[in-house]
Amino acid sequence: MKILIPIYLVLFFVGLQHFFEWQSAGFLLGLAALPFTTSFDTARKGGLRYFYISLALFVLYLLVPVHTFYYLTLITAIAFCLEMYVGRLNLLPMLVLICMSPIFEFWANLFTFPIRLQLTSIAGNMVMGAHVEGNIISCDGLDFSVDPACMGLQMTVTALLCGLIIIGGLQKKYRSVLSEGMTIGLLAVVFGLNVVGNLIRIVCLVQFRIMPGTPMHDVMGILSLVVYVLLPVFVLADYVVKRVGKAPVTEKPIYRIVPTGPLLLRNGILLACMIYACYVNVQPRPVKAHALPVQATGYDVKHLPQDVTQLSNEQALIYIKYIPSYYYSEHHPMICWKGSGYTFEKVQEQVWNGLPVYTALLVNGKTTLHTAWWYANGHHNYISQFAWRWDALKSGEQYSLVNVTTQDEASLRKVIMTLKF
Question: Can you give the pLDDT at residue 340?
Answer without folding.
Answer: 77
